[in-house]
Amino acid sequence: MKTDIRNKEDIKLMVDTFYGKVQANPILGFIFDDIAEVNWDTHLPHMYKFWGGVLFGENEFRGNPMYKHIMLSRKTQMSDIQFAEWLRLFSSTVDDLFEGPRADEAVTRAKMIAKTFLFNINQAAANEE
Question: What would the pLDDT profile of 87-103 be if each residue is shown by its tens digit?
Fold first, then answer.
């Protein structure tokens, strides 16, 4: 039986599982590995803190992910295709591992994050034209 997302260990499991899928994904993997050249040893702990803030109100995350994604969008396509795939992988990861109100909140917040990032990337591109 699945449980809800309860603590930092659950967030770590969610993030590690999700990004394992991302790295293996033909639509997203190369963006993280080849274009952004993500250092996974650094990135994953940032994502633990990010999702800890989103789901538990922790205040440990520092960074400006919107700016980083806008800069990345100048190097490679980041459209509804990529964000839909990111969201599909995230949702399936949460659904495979957890069930409950906090798991539902994670998916809801991921949808809002994807929509906001895509909107701002498109706005930034339009302003550059």
Answer: 999 999 999 999 999 99
